[in-house]
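[scheduler] slot 2 assigned
[scheduler] job type: sequence-to-structure, two independent chains
[scheduler] chain ordering preserved from manifest
[runner] begin chain α
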Amino acid sequence: MDIEIISETENPMLHRTDVKFEMVHEDATPSRLSVRDSLAAKLNKDADEVVIRKLDTKFGMRKTVGLAKVYDSAAHAQEVEHEHMLERNKIGVTEEAEEA
């Protein structure tokens, strides 16, 4: 999958950068976690510092537009983000909690 950054907006009050990106993929829309890992690698960040908020793929297209929040640290992400977004992005989730 090829990821291209469309825009980046700094948000110093929340210690994050809002990122809009576009990606082209061969098969079905990639999972949220694989997109998060690829975007984190492109931005030289740790995966726990990136929260994928939205992925939008038009029917039949191989292009997805997404929104992500890139935090200065994983602790900042856990302070600001809602619980369900942290769970979707597997941030701060221990393996014991996943098994339960």
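[runner] end chain α
[runner] begin chain β
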Amino acid sequence: MKAALDLLAGKLGGLAPRYGIVLGSGLGSLVSQLTDPVRIAYRDLPGFPVSAVSGHAGEVVAGRLGDVPVIMLSGRVHFYEKGDASAMRLPIEVLKGLGVEALILTNSAGSLREDLAPGSVMQIADHINYSGMNPLIGEESDRRFVGLTNAYDAALAEDMRAAAERVEVPLSQGVYMWFSGPSFETPAEIRMARILGADAVGMSTVPEVIIARMLGLRVAAASVITNYGAGMTGAELSHEETKDMAPIGGARLAAVLKEMIAAGGNRQ
């Protein structure tokens, strides 16, 4: 971790990011709005995981969003790629080491609600770890016993809702259920998820929330809805559909996050 942290800190030239953002599919428009961006490929940072999923850039991008210094992880490694729930631990530890205090997580997800259509945005209010995996398995200190009652920071959540209202982007709230992937869920699994109280399903984010909370980072998260869950429309699901729909909701979420960070930065 120290090698990656030292290298990245040197590249940033004194920039002290206050927010960290993990970008899921479709959030490339947010990267393009950074002032004087600094880009470092994951493969050039010691120990950083490199994703093989199409649609994930695999680079750290730092700069200013408005007047606020931020750092973005453009792309993530998922549990299903190598069977490692802790794959994003080192990158998040590096963000913490750089002084980041708040981590904003984004993803693409399938909707379990008919009123939550593809192209819309859902703020994650809570999650269900249906995969049964945990990124802290094997952690030898008592830090592994992380409380998740307040996994999603209330103040950050309010900032996100207020920002969405100002930029006139409808923002639903709901529960995200993490499936391991990489195959999509069955119709029966979607019916089960709805019974258990989930509003959206996806294959990421939850491990990152757990890691971030262990490190003491404040967390906010949002899903870009790319499709309805299996069996809700009769159509088969595909990764191509995810990539096609993600930029639509991604542009809306990018507008919300830009406004949220600008307002938060001005307040501090």
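[runner] end chain β
[qc] chain β: The beta strands are 19-23, 35-41, 59-65, 68-74, 102-111, 121-129, 171-178, 200-202, 218-228.
[scheduler] slot 2 released
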